[in-house]
């Protein structure tokens, strides 16, 4: 008897520990494997969004499998089947990209990516996904006092998930290569199998005799209305997780440390509210939601993010509160423990639905990321009292704001009303007034939500001084061609970053002047001229990244330029003279090679005198284009006395030290310059650029010594060169913020 009592005492701790390890492994593999895959898709932020769809689908498969085992088999029988699955998953280790998949296709990239994830990590991920509901189901059948509320173990599982997502960017990524991460993860998988074996043995020995009560509960089927509510309340937070992650990573970097922040917060909300005494009372959440959603509604779609980190903090705060709102309601509507696996099954179905909408459907439905504000408005539907009024009273509550939103849409689209730049102050005052009105109406949930719709419509339709000509959304980002209201300039934005501009008010000359980073007297132009002078002229030039094609007008004489561009949408924009004239006027015969430059350059048989790296996704240089292996690939296509010009401008990451480290490891000479000029946007759209030039010998770069501002790039011993197996985005972010 004492041994039996001691065993019963440790059961909750054992199950909690096993769930913690299972969740730890499950959420370590997500950023780890996605980072492995990222280089194959040009470092696009969409890679993580599509990966989230796979993770949710695999979670659904695991929960379905666990639901069947719990319903049909005893713990000992279920354990045997689960061990067979674990053994099959172990046979696929260590984690690596499946050799079946080569280069991605030009179309259907999302489905190709999901197939790659399924073939590479599908089996171990499903096995881990099943462990949480399976263990909780076994625990619910134990002869133990705490078995009456096994949902508390869900908190332990989510704590493991949160620990993994916190540890990956801080402890794992900066100190371990991907190969080392994979090996350690495989060892952890073996340890988990042992813990599950012990838990299964104890579950079979301490089963409660509760067949009669279970039969009574199972005899009453769960109403479909309740199942759909579970599904909806689970779908909205997953969609928000994907949307807010894309919002953040598009302008800073597509990197694990940014992916995991929203996902970790999402999981932490489960820990916070899946308990009888939540960390934050629901009444407090309801009070705070309007305070953060009101400023977000008037600022989310309002063009460039002038205060990026403040906007990130605001978005994350709103995301957490709206997710808490949904998950608290989900916990309030939880079923009896005997239906635990059914509950999780419908939650996972909702997660898949939310992921499919935000990551796969929305890019085809909306030319701009409108799914994000749409999900915010839908999340507000979970506010208590939202539907307290019905019929006529509810219609009266929301009629005026929605009517104004409709009028704004008609005014903009039908009458094509634009706002000049001098209307910006009045427009901002009107938005602030609208935000204040939302706060005054915070105790009327339906009216508040309708005002949020109005705010999103107004900010999506107008940006004073700028008129949208074209919006194109591809796997690699959102592209907007915008014309200034005075008709002088046409701009290309990727995300919120300016990628090129043309003065369309003066098209009298055959060669439009390159603007933004590409003016001939800027750092990029100076670097190209220095290499040209050292060669006595250039024959072949390769440019990685096309943009508007501005750089084509830095071509001289009969030089043969080739542009390497991963996004077909960008190639179509640059090649359309009705949008931009750089390519048609300055290099009409230039080749544009579609595909990832790492692959297409390697396949090229050309040798170049100059290679210019100017590839960006919004404000981010794809990491895999800035590694030692990438630079070695460029050098293999470079003439003996050729040079590399690297455009490394970035608002958030310090990259000069990374380039210096790579140059030192490769034995290259490196010089760099940061343009420092008086701000001139929006008067002439000339912007500063930070540029590095790398060559095999000092002679190649000797002409830069005469140009003010150019200096040798000296290596900081504390900064390691990035490789395909190692990169430290978080360190680059810290260096920029600390002005290193």
Q: Can you lay out the helices and strands and say which pair or pack?
A:
Layout: H1 2-37, H2 46-72, H3 75-90, H4 109-140, H5 152-172, H6 178-205, H7 211-219, H8 224-249, H9 256-273, H10 282-299, H11 308-332, H12 340-365, H13 371-380, H14 391-413, H15 424-440, H16 445-461, E1 466-474, E2 477-484, E3 489-494, E4 497-503, H17 523-535, E5 540-544, E6 560-565, H18 568-574, H19 582-586, E7 591-594, H20 597-603, E8 608-613, H21 628-636, E9 638-647, H22 656-666, E10 669-674, E11 690-695, E12 711-712, H23 729-737
Parallel strand pairs: 5-6, 5-8, 6-7, 8-9
Antiparallel strand pairs: 1-2, 2-3, 3-4, 9-11, 10-11, 10-12
Helix pairs in contact: 1-4, 1-5, 1-6, 1-9, 2-4, 2-8, 2-12, 3-4, 3-6, 4-6, 4-12, 5-9, 8-9, 8-11, 8-12, 8-13, 9-11, 10-11, 10-15, 10-16, 13-16, 14-16, 15-16
What would your notes on this structure say?
With 740 residues, the chain is an alpha/beta fold. The chain folds into three domains: 2-380, Growth Hormone, Chain: A (Up-down Bundle); 391-464; 520-680 and 688-737, 3-Layer(aba) Sandwich (Rossmann fold), CATH 3.40.50.150. Helices cover 55% and strands 10% of the residues. It contains 23 helices and twelve strands. It has helices at 2-37, 46-72, 75-90, 109-140, 152-172, 178-205, 211-219, 224-249, 256-273, 282-299, 308-332, 340-365, 371-380, 391-413, 424-440, 445-461, 523-535, 568-574, 582-586, 597-603, 628-636, 656-666, 729-737; strands at 466-474, 477-484, 489-494, 497-503, 540-544, 560-565, 591-594, 608-613, 638-647, 669-674, 690-695, 711-712. It has an eight-stranded mixed β-sheet, with helices on both faces. A hairpin with a 4-residue loop joins β2 (477-484) and β3. α1 (2-37) packs antiparallel against α9 (256-273) and α10 runs antiparallel to α15 (424-440). The termini are far apart.
